[in-house]
Specification:
This protein is α/β, with parallel strands linked by helices and 700 residues long. The chain has 22 helices and 26 strands. The strands form six sheets. Strands 8-9-7-10-11-6-12 form a seven-stranded parallel sheet, sandwiched between helices. It has a six-stranded parallel sheet with strand order 13-22-21-14-20-19, sandwiched between helices. Strands 2-1-4-3-5 form a five-stranded antiparallel sheet, with no helix packed on it. The structure holds a DNA duplex (12 and 12 nucleotides).
Length: 700
DNA sequence: TCAATCCGTATC
DNA sequence: ATACGGATTGAC
């Protein structure tokens, strides 16, 4: 965004771009403008959050409000101030009678806009998030408040919006009730939203559920109670579905969709409509987690296991965490939803903070497809073409039957680029370090010496599998992507289409086609697929990732939910051993059970969310300094540092990573310690930047 | 003894 | 960057 050359030399390179350069305008005409300025009569002090990404300057600075700016300088507005000899942008947080500051106090240079964008409520959210992640307030505020667009701000958003579009259709309570009736306590939950009273739930829909409509019903009920709702989804496909469902129930004028790719003007225009209280239902992707909805009644995160919900900019907040924080602070209802349940959501349930919203077993079964696992020693199909594609006989038969009935077939293949790891040679449980339970990896080939822990670096000479006792290890084979052409040959006569991250097919007509796709890019089919072949089992489950099992089930279920119920002949064939809990969870359609196991395992191994962790990555010198200076809470463990392999090692400097681990109860202290580390470094004008992330999603 | 200069620190 | 305070230096 901002050209690096325009940044002051003393500012560190990781700072985000500051908001649009305001014009200096009519000043300096009167020569000595400074001497003639008079402070405002009432509350002449403005507490300003300056837009500078330096951790040691993460606090407000006092400025004097000149008389002329008295009315414009309202709390929450954007201002421009002279700071350290430079003009910088900032936010006016509050007006005060006096200042504690001993030295001289400069006047506000100008009020950029009198729109109060950073309201007290939004500020409180940002503060809480900054504190949780050990980040600076301004970094979070930049994520929460989109860049200003003067023209969009000048337009009268309310008038333009409320006259357009069809009139709002009052939500029909009975229809919503019918949709939620299969779920235990579903009716009670709707009652709570209607009352309105704060209720928190973790929802797993039954397979094939029209989840966008169910979510829209929640939003409509909240809207009917005169409250606002924010629904956050991972991607544009989900956004379109939920937006459409909400518009259907509430009228398009009552709903606004927010996403980062709208363009600056439209993005700011819609955000303002929310901020000004014109629109009460927001559907959006990640950035919408901060949407300043008026009188919030409900927050929803759909598919919280999708890594798109993790913000890639510092301090890397996660949608689910932010919405949990907001629900907590603002006393609103919350729904954490998805076909699968994350360990984090399970923790919300087990701690009693949220209630499970799930259907009884007998109400799940009729909707689920029949799942057939096949092991590594599968029988290859007899058919010569299928043989060439190395397709198992079961998979081939299931697909052929589906195509014969005129139903399309979904084939899920793995994406490339997974890190190969080590696993038990007998039972394939990922190999873990005895000391810290980190993942073991071979340096070069397995014959080159003992494997080494990727977290703490200790070599493991005497490996013994924790679950079966075997002493042998094997490298996990990374699944290769079977091409559409290969499969096309196996199903001569069928149309083979592909859908992947780059080119996504939104929907496939109900015909005899084979759709080859990577996880997350599955097209929807009216009536459902006749069969799904999940061929990526080994590659997905063998990943050396904390979330391998959870993520695998998430991808499988995302595909399986698009398949017709078993009663209509729907079949899922999955390439993984039937004894694995993840496979069992798919067979029995038991996402909550899987989440219980997952959380229990993480508790046992000391992983998030059972423990809190902080990852610090940087040059070896920087990491050494951090280790030297950090003051960790009592009982904290230090794992590493270990070298981290760069995706491309072409001339990149070596980088290391260290992990700090504490019990959840010390999470706040850990965040504070990380904040102190950054403050020390920025105060020293350290140019060697370290990346600090709390509860990092990937630990390898 | 005191101004000129250097250095480190804060940035209102 | 710039502004400032305190320490250091060097000429009277």
């Amino acid at each position: 965004m901002t050209d690096p050359a325009s940044r002051p030399l003393w500012e560190l390179p990781h700072g985000q771009a500051s908001e649009g350069r305001a014009r200096s305008g009519n000043r300096a005409r009167s020569g000595r403008g400074r001497g003639t300025k008079q402070p405002a009569e009432h509350r002449p002090i403005a507490r300003v959050l300056v837009d500078v990404s330096l951790a040691h300057l993460d606090r407000t600075f006092d400025y004097r409000v000149p008389e002329q700016l008295d009315t414009a300088a309202a709390p929450g507005t954007r201002v421009r101030v002279r700071f350290a000899g430079q003009l910088v942008d900032g936010f006016l947080l509050e007006r005060a009678d006096s200042s504690e500051h001993e030295g001289r106090i400069a006047f506000l240079e100008r009020v950029t806009s009198s729109e109060p964008v950073l309201t007290n409520e939004l500020l409180a959210v940002c503060r809480a998030v900054a504190e949780r992640y050990g980040g600076t307030l301004i970094d979070v505020v930049r994520l929460a408040v989109p860049p200003r667009h003067a023209r969009a701000e000048a337009e009268s958003v309310p008038a333009a919006r409320s006259t357009a579009g069809p009139p709002a259709v009052p939500p029909d309570d009975r229809t919503a009730r019918a949709g939620w009736e299969p779920y235990r306590h579903g009716g009670n939950f709707l009652d709570a939203l209607a009352e309105p009273r704060a209720a928190r739930a973790v929802w797993q829909p039954v397979p094939g559920e029209d989840w966008p409509t169910r979510l829209a019903e929640l939003a409509a009920t909240t809207h009917g109670a005169g409250r606002g709702a924010v629904l956050v989804v991972p991607d544009h496909r989900a956004l379109a579905l939920v937006q459409e469902a909400c518009a259907r129930l509430l009228g398009s004028a009552a709903v606004v969709s927010l996403s980062a790719d709208l363009g600056p003007a439209e993005r700011y225009r819609r955000w303002l409509a929310v901020s000004r209280g014109v629109v009460r239902v927001v559907v959006g992707t990640r950035a919408a987690m901060f949407a300043p909805i008026a009188e919030a009644g409900l927050f929803v995160v759909w598919d919280d296991g999708d890594d798109l919900h993790a913000e890639p900019r510092a301090p890397y907040p996660h949608v689910r965490d932010v919405l949990v924080t907001r629900a907590h602070h603002e006393g609103t209802s919350l729904v954490v939803a998805g076909f699968t349940r994350t360990a984090e959501a399970q923790l919300l349930v087990e701690s009693g903070w949220a209630h499970p919203l799930v259907a009884e077993r007998e109400r799940v079964r009729p909707h689920a497809p029949r799942v057939t696992p096949f092991g590594e020693d599968f029988d290859v199909a007899r058919d010569p073409a299928a043989r060439a594609a190395r397709l198992p006989a079961v998979a081939f038969e299931a697909a052929r039957t589906a195509l014969g009935n005129g139903h399309p077939v979904l084939v899920q293949v793995p994406r490339r680029g997974y890190l190969p790891g080590l696993a038990c040679a007998a039972c394939r449980t990922p190999a873990r370090c005895r000391r810290c339970a980190g993942p073991l990896a071979a340096e070069g080939s397995l014959a080159d010496g003992p494997p080494v822990c990727r977290w703490c670096g200790s070599p493991e000479a005497g490996f013994r599998c924790a679950s079966c006792g075997t002493r042998r290890l094997r490298a996990v084979v990374v699944g290769s992507r079977r091409t559409a052409e290969e499969l096309g040959k196996a199903f001569a006569g069928a149309v083979v289409r592909t859908s992947d991250g780059r080119e996504t097919l939104p929907e496939v007509a109900h015909d005899s086609s084979v759709v080859v796709c990577t996880p997350g890019a599955e097209p929807v089919v009216p009536g459902g697929y006749g069969a799904a072949l999940l061929l990526d089992g080994w590659a997905l489950l063998g990943r050396q990732d904390l979330r391998a099992a959870e993520e695998t089930l998430r991808r499988w279920m995302a595909a399986a939910t698009l398949v017709r119920p078993a009663g209509d002949g729907g079949r899922v064939v999955v390439g993984a051993d039937s004894s694995l809990p993840t496979v069992q969870a798919l067979v029995r359609w038991a996402p909550a059970w899987h989440a219980e196991l997952e959380l229990a395992e993480r508790t046992e191994l000391g992983f998030p969310p059972a423990m809190r962790m902080a990852g610090v990555e940087g040059s070896p010198e920087a990491i050494a300094t951090v280790l030297d200076e950090v003051s960790l809470p009592a009982g904290a463990e230090v794992l590493g540092p270990v070298p981290v392999t760069e995706p491309d090692e072409q001339g990149h400097a070596r980088r290391e990573r260290v992990l700090f681990r504490v019990p959840r109860s010390a999470g706040r202290e850990l965040a504070t310690a990380m904040r102190a580390v950054s403050a020390l470094r920025t105060a020293r004008k350290e140019t060697d930047v370290v990346r600090i992330e709390l509860d990092p999603l990937t630990l390898v």
